[in-house]
Specification:
single chain, 355 residues, alpha/beta, TIM Barrel, 9 strands, binds coproporphyrinogen III
């Protein structure tokens, strides 16, 4: 079977008439669909309760917890899609990379990848490595009914930024030193990560995810030329690998105003936009044939209902002429966000876009 073919016999498990999937496919929708990046997480008291005493990575490997945490924001906010509760470093942990997610810090890698010999740490990912993902998605799709489940993975560049730096970074100096100084090693690293990422997304789709999002959160650190030369080929490989399933593919990054066109060219069906570029301008940069996702500044949620509604109207007005629009924040929900503000925002978007 070629990488582009979906396996014979797999039946789509989600209903294909949800507003979210329709918007991704640029079809008419009953209302603009809404979900939030990081909708499952610390903004919810019920999340903090079930996570008590359970380390982040352990929670990602327990199907009962994953199912409960994924469903929490769906129950509470009436969002149009669930996002599978996990983290971008889970597939790396699953192939044996020594890493942890440190509270308030993020992913920390014990032995950073800096040399060709270090590449040996990156073996192929098989479905057995992440059997808890298959199990959790089975539980979830049964509970979710018609609500689509979004699977996700970190893009090769963003994963490489953690693996080469050894942890979060503002400058990515080690990753960029490899990218500029040893382009062959860099290309091989990103290609390995593309294969691991593609395998991880396939597991999620085959288990029942009805869309996937590739998070290249930190790609905004790159110039368009460097992105095209050193990153796009690996991300394009990931998108090609899952093309044959026919599920919408979303591509998102932060600070990527200058990269919207190349990130779209990597093969996404839907391009995620942060709050720095209005959606109509983003559409001009990208050109026809793509749906857009975004892009309310997540900090607006601290400003009170009137400000949230005014800024939401701005987003909806900029989105009015788009071929397809999935409402979201421009980046993840911040942990101190009032969850009621999110619930009100979903209702506001639904009622003000009802057709
Ligand atoms: C860069 C990145 C990471 N992880 C992720 C990204 C890309 C998305 C983005 O740009 O925000 C992706 C991610 N991580 C998590 C999700 C959950 C699904 C959802 O969106 O609801 C998703 C989609 C859970 C999580 N991942 C993490 C948490 C917080 C840890 C906790 O709740 O104990 C959650 C809910 C940890 C994590 N993991 C990472 C960071 C930077 C952090 C935050 C560290 C901190 O502030 O404590 C790496």
């Amino acid at each position: 079977m070629s990488a582009n073919e979906s396996p014979a016999g797999r039946q789509p498990t989600a209903t294909y008439d949800s507003a979210f999937l329709k918007a991704c496919r640029r079809e008419p929708v009953p209302h603009t669909p809404v979900w939030f990046m990081r909708q499952a997480g610390r903004s919810l008291p019920e999340y903090r309760k079930v996570r008590e005493g359970v380390p982040m990575l352990e929670s990602c490997m327990r199907p009962d917890l994953v199912t409960e945490i994924t469903l929490q924001p769906v129950r509470r906010h009436d969002v149009d899609a669930a996002i599978y509760f996990s983290d971008i470093v889970v597939p790396l942990k699953a192939i044996g990379i020594d890493l942890d997610i440190k509270p308030g810090v993020g992913p920390v890698v014990e032995r950073p990848i800096r040399t060709r010999a270090d590449l040996a740490q990156l073996r192929d990912l098989t479905p057995d490595d992440v059997s808890y993902v298959t199990e959790a998605i089975g539980l979830l799709t049964a509970e979710l009914g018609a609500t689509p489940l979004i699977g996700f993975a970190g893009a090769p560049f963003t994963l490489a930024s953690y693996l080469v730096e050894g942890g979060p970074s503002r400058t990515y100096e080690n990753a960029k030193a490899m990218m500029y100084g040893d382009p062959e090693l860099w290309a091989d690293l990103l290609d390995r990560l593309a294969e691991i990422t593609a395998a991880f997304l396939k597991v999620q789709i085959e288990a029942g995810a009805s869309a996937v999002q590739l998070f290249d959160s930190w790609a905004g650190a790159l110039s368009p030329a460097d992105y095209r030369r050193s990153v796009l080929p690996a991300s394009a490989k990931v998108f090609r690998a899952v093309e044959g399933y026919g599920v919408p593919r979303i591509h998102f990054g932060v600070g990527t105003g200058e990269l919207l066109k190349p990130m779209s060219d990597a093969g996404a069906d839907v391009v995620g936009v942060d709050w720095r570029v209005p959606l109509d301008e983003a559409a001009r940069r990208i050109g026809p044939g793509k749906a857009l996702q975004g892009n309310l500044d997540p900090t607006v949620l601290f400003a009170g209902t009137e400000a949230v509604e005014a800024k939401t109207r701005e987003v909806l007005e900029a989105a009015a002429g788009l071929e397809g629009h999935v409402f979201n924040l421009g980046h993840g929900v911040m942990p101190s966000t009032d969850p009621d503000a999110l619930t009100r925002l979903v209702e506001y978007v639904h009622t003000h876009t009802a057709r």
